Amino acid sequence: MISKAKVKFIKSLQVKKYRKEEQSFIVEGAKGVKELLQSDFEVCWLAGTSDFLDSANGYEAFKKIEVVETSEMELSGLGSFNTNNSALAIARIRPNVAPKLTAEYVLVLDDIRDPGNLGTIIRTADWYGIKHIIASEETADFYNPKVITATMGSFCRVHVYYTSLTDYLFGIDWPLYGASLTGHSLYETNFGKEGFIVIGNESQGISPAIHSLINQHITIPRIGEAESLNASIATAIILDNVFRLKK
Q1: Domain boundary, last residue among 64, 92, 120
Q2: Does residue 97 lie within any of the structural domains?
Q3: Are residue 175 and residue 135 in the same domain, yes or no?
Q4: Structural domain tally of the chain?
Q5: Does residue 156 share a domain with residue 82?
Q6: Residue 200 sits in a domain of what CATH number?
Q7: pLDDT at 117 over 70
Q8: Rounded to 5, what percent of the chain is helix, strand, coil?
Q9: Across the chain, what does the average pLDDT equal?
Q10: Distance between the two ends of the chain, CA-based, in angstroms?
Q11: Closest listed residue to residue 89, CA positions, set 4, 156, 12, 28
Q12: 145 part of a folded domain
């Protein structure tokens, strides 16, 4: 049985203000929680059904956290994931520290507002081996439960750093590619061993301040009549071509 105080605390972590105050976030569902238990996140508390706890009992993290057995009915009313019938965990937010980059490709997200889009972009980045994402301060919160759920566990492997993009990108030495409706064809672009790939806002695209810093504007050639592509779909197409052409 989960206490009323803990239920209230879990509910509060669905709101960004309280996540920031408590420096904590929630992870829902069997896959996400198991990925969390194997990661370097600090896990503080875990509630799970007897079946889940039996299946995950070998994880080292179990020795350091409070574990509560609960029912599927109780879990379904706890978080934002109504179909959660396995587990829910509370973990500590990582410090927002700029990553130390080596020769690699890095995604830059300029005002991606939709949590589902952000989660899918993180999952796609993980698929292609992208370890770091630089996000504008206006981009959706990495620790939003909808973002965490949409990543399908990839939040454990992709580091997202929030900062002023103009300050971060000004004067960088690496190539800076910007996804645009106009520009050089993605299929004819020669990608090197490293670079930043900028993905703009779902409706407005890349902001003027960041647009002016980009070395090369790239576009996915349009064949049909659609006005634009979803930001997460565009990210997947671009990354596929970057890494396919590098082979």
Answers
A1: 92
A2: no
A3: yes
A4: 2
A5: no
A6: 3.40.1280.10
A7: yes
A8: 35, 25, 40
A9: 92
A10: 53
A11: 28
A12: yes
Q: Residue 48: what are its φ and ψ, rounded to 5°?
A: -155, 160
DSSP bridge partners of 89 = 27, 46
Ramachandran category for residue 104: left, alpha or beta (phi over 0 → left; psi -120 to 50 → alpha): beta
Cβ–Cβ < 8 Å for 30, 52 = yes
Segments forming the whole domain that contains residue 57: 4-92
Q: Which of 160, 242, 174, 184 is nearest to 213 (CA)?
A: 174
Would you mind telling me the total number of residues written for the chain in this entry?
247
**Residue 113 burial class via C-beta count within 10 angstroms: exposed 0-12, middle 13-18, buried 19 and up:** middle
Give the CB-side neighbour count of residue 49, counting CA atoms within 13 A: 14
209 and 184 within one domain: yes
Per the DSSP assignment, residues forming a β-bridge with 216 are 177
- Integer Cα distance of 65 and 88 in angstroms: 13
Q: Answer whether residue 206 shows pLDDT above 90.
A: yes
pLDDT tens-digit profile of 53-105? Answer: 988 776 766 767 899 999 988 888 887 766 677 999 999 999 999 999 999 99
pLDDT class for 165, splitting at 50, 70, 90? Answer: very high
Which pTM value belongs to this model?
0.94
- Residue with token string 């996140």: 41
Of 32, 30, 38, nearest to 61 by C-alpha is 38
- 219, 237 contact by CB (below 8 A): no
Residues 79 and 126 in one domain: no
